Amino acid sequence: MPGPASTTSGADVTKRRHQAKPRARGQAETPVSIRPVSRREALKYITMGAIGAVPLMAPGGVMDGLVADVVRGPDATDQISVTAPATTKSGRIRQWSMIIDLAKCDGCQSQGTPPQCTTACIEGHFAPQPMEWIEVYEADFGGGGTQFIPTPCQQCENPPCVKVCPVGATFSTPEGVVLIDQERCIGCRICMAACPYDRRFFNWGDPPIPPEAALADYQVEQQVPATRGTVMKCDFCPEMVRDGTLPFCVQACPNDAIWYGDLEEDIATNGRTIVKASRLISENNGYRLKEHLGTQPRVHYLPGHGEDVGRDPGVEGRMPTDWPWIERAEGAVSWTR
Amino acid sequence: MDTVTNWRERLISKTTRPTRVTTYKYWLWLGFLILITGNGAFQYWKQWQDGLYVTDMRDRISWGLYISMFIFFTGVSMAGTVISAMLRAANAQWRASITRVAEFITAFALMIGAGFIIVDMGRPERIFNVYIHGRWQSPIMWDVMAITTYLTASLIYLYAPMIPDLALYRDRLAGKVGAVRSFIYRTLALDWKGSPTQFKLLGKAITIMTLIIIPIAVSVHSVVSWIFGMTLRVGWNTAIFGILFVAGAVFSGLATLIIIMAVLRKTYHWEEYITERQFKYLGYMLASLALFMIYINVSEYLTAGFKFEEGSEFAFRQLFLEEFSGMFSFYIIFGLVVPVAIVLIPKTRTIGGIVVAAVLVNLAMFIERYFLVVTGLRVPLMPYEPASYSPNFVEWSIAASGVAMFCLLLTVTVKIFPMFAVWEMTEEHDAAMALTQAEETLMHEAAIAGPRLSTEVSPDSGRPAEGGAS
Amino acid sequence: MTYRHRLLSARVSISILAVATILVMAAPALAATVDIAVGAPDKVLVGQDVEVKAVLSEDGVPIEGAEVALTYQASLGGESTRVEIATGTTDETGTAVMFYEQRADDNGEMQVTYLGPGTNPVSPYVFTIAVEPGGEQLYRSESGVEIPFVNGTLVILLITGVWSLIALAAVYLVRVGREGRLEEVLSADDGSVWISVLLAIVAVITAIGMVIVFVRVPVLNTDLTDPEVYDRTQIAYIGATYPYQGFGLDEEPSAQSGDPAFDGGKVYFGYGCAACHGVLGQGAVVGPTLEDEIGSLAQFIDDIREGPRDMPAYGEATLTEADIEKIYRFLDEGG
After folding, report:
1. Best mutation site among B152, B154, B202, B207 for testing chain C: the one with the most C CBs within 10 Å?
2. CATH topology (fold) of B2-380+404-446
3. What are C105-137's pLDDT values in tens digits?
4. A16 contact residues in B (CB cutoff 8 A)
5. For C222-244, how does the pLDDT look when each residue is reduced to its tens digit (9 = 90+)?
6. Are the beta carbons of A69 and C152 separated by less than 8 Å?
7. Which of A56, A216, A271 is facing C215, going by the closest CB pair?
8. Residue A271's domain is classified under what CATH number?
9. What b-and-e string marks burial along B373-397, b requiring 16 or more CB atoms within 10 Å of the CB?
């Protein structure tokens, strides 16, 4: 007949449990102490658990790949994509980047239009309202006056969004571009919480896109057509550069303020001329947004407030962006950010 | 011997009472819960049709009430672990009558909590991508792993100590309940007949689960906090989140347990088993946790506010002075300070007072989860106007249905499963009796006190762990 | 942090001063113009730091303080221009030393250009430097610290250990059931014991399955080389020959440059025809190829107006007959 359970000795307990009185069938009430766990026993169970894990460790190859990836993340430069990233002649992979000259950006005030980079991006990518994958923010200077900052996805080399994605729907390509696979995205939105630049957008409902876009064959580098419940963002248009043209925003900028470049060959072009990227950045005191966060963005900025195109920093405001096909989007909803 | 048996019989009759007697109030309550759950289900169906568009969440505040509910419920799920496993491991003698309820709370709260993650997903039909394409590097994946583990472990941990009681139900309620319940008891009782070998095996299973469920629970709540702690946002980007969430989880878990205990006690007249003592001890735990929570909050806001990094100004302004100041001060005053006062002042340290404290704590903890999520997202990252968010009807409906479903599960459970660990309570009672006996008689007389009392019982080992947990 | 991966090879230092001096000595009879002489290695490796010296003289007299620039031919994104990779200023011997890191795989024609201070145009010195390609990436992102054993192995050991313990507990429960049955076989009259054993087995299998799934799957999914992961086939963007001029989906789309095939291309892309039918009308997953089944112009117009199969119909309001004809011309010539 077991007694109280409050014993400190494991040996006592063992003895007592064996004394449980045999009872008639149907009487299920033998009180048996579930006593405090002794250290010896704890060790025993932990050892058993560890031994259980051993067979799983056996296929070494499986583990090695994982081990390498967990801490560092997939090593982009070791990957050879089946569909071939853009390379130099000797097979070095192009490393896309962007350099945005704020001294030449007036938010298209002088054009009297919405920012042309945003407009072109929207039209080129059929970006659903209200997504501005490259958004022209107007930031205040401390003592008055503003500057315009066109902000695409910063294509971080240490991307917080890629690190948190539970399903690998967002990933860095060997070219250094961060893409999203909308066919895999589960819509948990942790990447949006993780992005320190607010550069990710969610399709809250059926996205407003023109009907012809809805017929397109989905490609991860185009993100067309947009689908509900997935995250989207600037994809850096690497396919366009591979094909011998430039991203929509670069082509559309009336002031040639946006440079698209390859850090591997160290060149950048704004559609008019080509320059050495590192010199362009260093000679103009280039910087990156929120550099202190250690995200290592691939987008560099050259300081300014549109002075090269004659903008007075005191003139504030820009035209709002619009989505030209919004009436033609069938059965879709639109929302505000 | 007689008193013991009578006590036991009375306990069994009290325990099985819900399965035998059902009043109209029960059906009313059930109907009410089903109504709320149904409304939530309807709203979710709408959300399934139209996407998360039907909520008030938007790009800049992309998480809201759903994620708050997720954190809240995973927090509540800590109840079972704390009460059951910690007290079991510490061998606190007053825990037996409340463990079962706590374990049920754990399992149900976890199910509901995990459900809110699915509710919050933009593409719930792709949930299995988490298994097909899962990445270890993601905090969400840690969550999936931790919650799956915790749910499995807590179900086993709930089930294993229930086997003897299910066998009791199987035997005592044979012919008194319907075929379904009979089948459940028969099946789940695993042919239990109380043989020493069975007790030994069961003891092993329970010991293992007691051993591992506490670290698992701590990991779950840490991992939940890391969903936020792994981002670069002001207010979230802090290592204290793990501790804050674990402490907060124990805190709200205890509070939930107190509330549900009080309700069950009142409804089924279990005053004899759930006594003021349990409430007081839980109240002490609640108060000490509240003090710890106050410390964590001071520590966090002082260090962040002293340095005042980029974005902190906005974060502090909204939390202390502007939009969220009401919620924040409610949390601090009514969630942390007042409960401590209620428990510490002898006059208010009654069952009623402690239940009031528990209600306040639960309310405050829910509010805390809500403003932690929303204020973290609200701090502007780029030069734009701060967004605003307030849950709309759809979100409130689904959140309410989560609570209702939680209550519903408990309500139904009460009618089927034993809410008291009869065998553990008998054991505890025996210990108490042995103590009384030992005190009243000489040592040698204890040996003949009755066949149900072990000769090995010594006065000191039989002493109930008074205030063992406070 | 710097990303530049610098090769360890020493700088190539070619002394051309002697050569240049000879050149300068031999030239007094020439006209009084600026002469540029350049000393540079014939061949460099990719990633190497290269030194190029230029000697400037006017009527045999070294020019001091002259600005020179070194350029090479580069192309990117459809552009192909000269890129200035280094500049220098001459010293009292008329020598400017310029350094650059060889990043391009092909320098094309290199030039040293005289920038000033004189205003008379000076024809640049043209030369070539052959490039020995190296396959190694020069620009690298090196983020992350690898700490021994603090990695996936640890995580998986931990998870596996925990799940093994859970499984162990489940096994004990199975044994509880079996124990009850073995001692009193007749008690299993309703077969419930089998259900319980089955449940327990399912629990154990689930536990083991969970571990296996979690151990195995993430490895497969960090591999971006898997073609299933993503495909880079291009659709729906403006082709190389059609620089962006606005899609104008809501505007009057009549593009006019005189060349109907060229304009047709713009309209073709502007309306997103390419989204389904491919960049050059060769067809894609959604839309069929337009290369051979295009038929006559009248037929083509009818098709667009009606929208065969799943294709949307484009009315007169969106696409004028003239535009359709342009598209037809574009497809006829290009596709």
Report:
1. B152
2. Formate dehydrogenase/DMSO reductase fold (1.20.1630)
3. 888 888 998 887 776 777 888 888 888 877 677
4. 454, 456
5. 433 333 333 222 222 222 222 23
6. yes
7. A56
8. 3.30.70.20
9. bbbbbbbebbeeeebebebeebbbb
